[in-house]
């Protein structure tokens, strides 16, 4: 698909496209060329109010509809997503800068997977409560009830996937949603809303408001919002969580990471290097769970470095719609400058050993030099005190840290305020489980990296987040519990009786 200027993107509520009243337009950019991609109309406060009101009106009927009815509608939406996979993926590629080889096989697919999972879960009794016989003439039952109108704040790195990870359990549980895409990658929002409508989701159940952080702040602080689900950086997440907590709103926060990979001494180095490559350079390193701190046994460091250099030859930047391309640019100029500054700091201040990459753009991007391209970069023989080791870079920058003992590696791996993901590579599965049990992270892998299927509940520890997404526990994050005690004895006991 050639680069093109897309039609303007509008707001969506009451089951149809709506004009924004703010007069503000955000122009999105194709990251591979730095050329304009689309005009997106930003919501005013009154537009957000209208979208929330639409969601409020729709809530009662949607939440009271039988779960199997909601399930059938959402399964239809999943089918439509799969049927339109290629066209949606092509837009995601232009919007995010990720290669089509990735978006066509991962982004829409994994979002549809989540929609199917939660639709099937509620259709199969996933919202059933519990009963308990308290005594012969008394019993207790519980119900799982929808929360109300929820706010979803999307992230720019996996736009359609994250929108579905949030809206699928939200809608399946009987809630309604007002969703704000990232202003950097907003082109999926209107498309997803139209698919939901076509599938039979009633007007007002899923709504979209576009805009920057000010729109998101107004939405999440709105008094009619019962829950906020946010994906993004730690600093912003803390502000959103603080605002929501002050109003006793429910929250799910999926924030950043600085995740460790521990290559244990007996690991197959070929597999370990493949895992480290995946954990650092997939999506050009713009993945929150990336394993950017790679702990390698000191006596294996030279062999590990050699194999990393060999694998780097297989990273292929280039035209994004070429299925042979497997590496794209960074998402925006702002982010490009941020990552470049980290690389400069690693070279000039941290004095880290640069194994490959560094400043400048990849050679094989003929005709795309204006885009936000960056070289896959590896620093080796790093120390824990380095800024590039301590802070989340969110780009294709690997740091290799040698270690002497496994206990040392585990202790150093845990010395971070973040705790999103972690993993180990080893041939000894008993040792793998022992090490994993000691790592302070909510998402862990053994002899693999990065896969987060819809069946797997994922969420961060420490400052990497609150709550989980996906899996059976992911549905619990979108309901509240009501317990009822029924006494059938016909007698109300009292201490206020006549003596």
Description of the structure:
The protein has helices spanning 45-64, 67-83, 85-96, 100-123, 159-172, 189-199, 213-221, 234-246, 269-281, 301-312, 333-348, 387-390, 406-413, 429-438, 471-476, and strands spanning 11-13, 16-18, 25-30, 35-41, 131-135, 138-146, 149-153, 176-180, 206-208, 225-231, 250-254, 260-263, 293-297, 353-356, 377-380, 397-403, 418-419, 421-425, 443-446, 461-462, 465-466, 479-487. With 499 residues, the protein is an alpha/beta fold. The longest helix has 24 residues, at 100-123.
Task: Based on the model shown, name its key terms.
Aldehyde Dehydrogenase, Chain A, domain 1, six-stranded mixed β-sheet, Aldehyde Dehydrogenase, Chain A, domain 2, seven-stranded mixed β-sheet, 2 domains, 15 helices, 499 residues, alpha/beta, 21% strand
């Amino acid at each position: 698909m050639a680069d093109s200027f897309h039609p303007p993107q509008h707001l969506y509520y009451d089951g149809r496209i709506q004009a924004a009243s703010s007069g503000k337009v955000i122009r999105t950019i194709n990251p591979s060329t730095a050329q304009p991609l689309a005009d997106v109309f930003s919501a005013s406060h009154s537009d957000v109010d209208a979208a929330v009101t639409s969601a409020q009106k729709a809530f009662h009927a949607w939440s009271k509809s039988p779960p199997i009815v909601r399930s059938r509608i959402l399964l239809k939406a999943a089918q439509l997503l799969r049927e339109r996979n290629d066209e949606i993926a092509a837009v995601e590629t232009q919007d995010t800068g990720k290669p089509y080889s990735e978006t066509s096989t991962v982004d829409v697919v994994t979002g549809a997977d989540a929609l199917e999972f939660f639709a099937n879960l509620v259709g199969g009794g996933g919202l059933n409560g519990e009963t308990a016989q308290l005594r012969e003439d008394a019993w207790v039952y519980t119900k799982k009830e929808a929360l109300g109108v929820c706010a979803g704040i999307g992230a720019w790195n996996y736009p359609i996937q994250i929108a579905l990870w949030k809206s699928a359990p939200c809608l399946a549980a009987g809630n309604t949603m007002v969703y704000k895409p990232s202003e950097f990658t907003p082109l999926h929002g209107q498309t997803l809303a139209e698919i939901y409508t076509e599938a039979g989701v009633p007007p007002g159940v899923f709504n979209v408001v576009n805009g920057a952080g000010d729109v998101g702040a107004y939405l999440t602080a709105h008094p009619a919002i019962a829950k906020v689900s946010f994906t993004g950086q730690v600093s912003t997440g803390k502000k959103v969580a603080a605002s929501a907590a002050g109003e006793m709103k429910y929250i799910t926060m999926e924030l950043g990471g600085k995740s460790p990979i521990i290559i244990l001494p007996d690991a197959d180095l070929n597999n370990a290097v493949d895992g480290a490559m995946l954990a650092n350079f997939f999506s050009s390193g713009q993945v929150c769970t990336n394993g950017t701190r790679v702990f390698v046994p000191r006596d294996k460091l030279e062999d590990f470095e050699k194999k990393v250099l060999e694998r780097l030859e297989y990273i292929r930047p280039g035209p994004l719609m070429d299925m042979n391309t497997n590496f794209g640019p960074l998402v925006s100029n702002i982010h490009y400058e941020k990552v470049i500054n980290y690389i400069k700091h690693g070279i000039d201040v941290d004095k880290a050993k640069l194994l490959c990459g560094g400043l400048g753009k990849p050679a094989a991007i003929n005709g795309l030099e204006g885009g936000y391209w960056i070289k896959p970069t590896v620093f080796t023989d790093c120390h824990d005190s380095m800024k590039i080791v301590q802070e989340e870079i969110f780009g294709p920058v690997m740091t290799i840290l040698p270690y002497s003992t496994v206990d040392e590696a585990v202790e150093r791996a845990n010395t971070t305020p973040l705790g999103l993901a972690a993993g180990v590579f080893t041939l000894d599965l008993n040792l793998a489980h022992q090490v994993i049990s000691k790592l302070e992270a909510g998402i862990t892998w053994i002899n693999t990296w990065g896969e987060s299927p819809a069946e797997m509940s994922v969420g961060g520890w420490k400052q990497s987040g609150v709550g989980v997404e996906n899996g059976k526990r992911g549905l619990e994050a979108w309901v509240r519990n009501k317990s009822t005690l029924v006494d059938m004895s016909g007698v109300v006991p009292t201490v206020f009786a006549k003596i």
